[in-house]
Amino acid sequence: MMGSIGMMDSAYFVGRSEILSWINSTLQLNLCKVEEAASGAVHCQLMDAAHPGIVPIHKVNFDAKNEYEMIQNYKVLQDVFNKLKITKHIEVNKLVKGRPLDNLEFMQWMKRYCDNVNSGLVHNYNPLDRREACKGGKEAGRRPAHQVSAKLNNAALRPQSSHCSKRNDGSSSANIENHHLKLIKPASTTWTAYDELITELKLSVDSLEKERDFYFSKLRDIEILCQCPEIENSSIVEAVKRILYATDDDVSVMVEAQAIVSKNMNQRVNLSPIAEVAEEHIQIENQKRKNIRSQEVDAEANAVLYPRQRLSDGSDVHCGVSPLVTY
Asked: Which PROSITE patterns does the entry mention (predicted)?
């Protein structure tokens, strides 16, 4: 089954509005933010919609508010992953904190997985009936969509109410209530804008923290590599350590590192005559081998010519003796 997918996969480019629309339409909920699903109950029901009968829905708690209650939901989800042999790692410690970016990424993965199962189509699934077996499941779909904004608006109206009552101490209570009603709409739009801005800032902070942790891990890997005994004393490693362990952003640190590398290069250049002597020695040895080889070739050639020479010598002797023979 599908496990982890790459961070550059198209699944991680799905926006929050599309994710929320998918959750609310599939499970008939009224979520306004992705982090409202941090309890893990929504994830369990999404898996129940994709694989009916696999999830023990009676163990899911939609009313989970504390971390230990949320962890129980994620245990149920992990058991379902194990049954389906899904290798996706669930970062429970991050999800229960309600961090927007972590919850968004995990929900993006959930959407990709559910889309791959039966092409994302859910047949004959009644999310309301299934939630009735859960703790707090009946009230989950009845919560108003702007419940959080309403709480913020009520909190914002309280100091305004006390301020107005002090200024208009002599006025009637009916005039004060009318004044409050006039302030409801501006306060509502203002706090909604603030709420969206806070959410965007949280996403930005989470993204920066993740990027920071990524590059820090890379630097740590480089540090471990520089501590290897085989290369620990080399000049390149010394220059890298000088940059890694610098306590400030002074330009001189980079200059010192470059000087260490340059010094090592100069030492190599000074040692070049030794290399020339060695090369000359190699050439002499090669020449000796060539001379020995040529001598062997000459010897073989002489060995081939010797029988012919003996034959010619024998004929010369016979010709020389025949005039001396007396009959």
From this structure: CH (PS50021), EB1_C (PS51230)
Residues 258 and 288 in one domain: no
Instruction: Verify that 29 and 126 share a domain, yes or no.
Output: yes
> For the segment 64-84, what is each residue's pLDDT rounded down to a tens digit?
999 999 999 999 999 999 999
Task: Please identify, among 73, 107, 140, the residue that sits at the C-terminal boundary of a domain.
Answer: 140
Determine the Cα angle at 114 with ends 5 and 94, to 5°: 55
Let me know whether 56 and 46 are in one domain: yes
- Type of residue found at 262: S
- Give the residue numbers spanning the domain of 217: 147-226
Number of domains in the chain: 4
Flag whether pLDDT at 203 surpasses 70. Answer: yes
Distance CA 115, CA 122 (A): 10
Q: Are residues 295 and 193 in the same domain?
A: no
User: Do 26 and 136 lie in a common domain?
Assistant: yes
| The token pair that represents 161 in the structure block | 């109410």
Query: pLDDT above 90 covers what percent of the chain?
Result: 29
